[in-house]
Amino acid sequence: MPSLDTSTPLAPIVQRADAPASLPEITAGGLTWRPATRADAPALLELRNTIAEADAEPYREVLAEITEMFDAPWRRFDTDSLLGHDADGALVAYAQVESMPGDTRTVRVVLFGGVHPARRGEGIGRELFAWQVARGRQVLAASGKDLPARIAAYAEDDGPAAKARMFDHAGFTPRRFYSELRRDLRETAEPLPDIRLDGLRLVPFSAELDEATRLAHNDAFRDHWGSEPQTPEQWTHGRTGFAPQWGALVVDPAPDVDALLADPDTDAATADALRAGQPLVVAYALNERYDEDFAVRGYSFGYTAILGTRRAYRGRRGAPAALVAGMRAMQGDGMEFACLDVDTENPTGATGLYAGLGFTKTHGSRMLSIEL
Q1: Please, what are the domains in the chain?
Q2: pLDDT per residue as tens digits for the range 319-348
């Protein structure tokens, strides 16, 4: 897999980003362009769902998911978004350049966007994507973070061929591949296993343990490719589909504080929490519910959004126990399947874990990027 060469010192981010002084003009389609605002949420929802239906994507969105995007304080819609309207005022195309405030290992921008199916083939998408890439370079240059950098986009494996050609033409290379998996929860399916924990305690998700779960997540994903620490604002944002009643946590009721503090792998935030006597979450499964997707897929399901185990607690079955507990909660609420996504090169052996629990692949997606 292509990667950035780290054998020599990196040039300053301003040089590597090679940001243009001005952004390219979009002339294709004869559209009128302006930044997105919160008032555009209904039209943006309609366009995004129209695109998803045309491209046979396995999901749909609801208005709350769109409006909550505008609530994140780190998003700059005035400079990092565009909407293209036709002469009648109908929304035809959109673009968003997303950057994350918590990046400490790789500074990233992610590009989202699309064109109404009825207006494809006019060059709108190609010009709009060029604008996004140029704006992404400007955002990276302005970050001031002299770190490895990435401009990324995502695509379904069976998405439009024209979109794949556009990415290739713009110099994007596939870097990571993801599989969506599902596990049958119906009465006719194999029963969920009982997983016993030694010295650890399985508890339901609670708001009181939310911050402790964030610290566990940042520790668990330190060695995952492309993952970056989540700030408290990032962690609690974007929870329209969050199903706390399905969340499961594993805590250590009597952690060896001295040993953990002496461990060089213990991060500073966790060390502070240990010294303060706060609860130690060591594994977690946080799940989501998207009723609007049931008809698209033809079945009801719960979705495991994030699953992880602290590095010092791997091998103690915390994550499998939390995952199964979440699936039991889904099953109790009548869900027919449990679903999740996995990086096919996950370093913790998660793919084998899911296979052992009866998960099978339904479809795939990929991340493409320019590495700087």
Answers
A1: 13-171 (3.40.630.30), 179-365 (3.40.630.30)
A2: 999 999 999 999 999 999 999 998 877 555
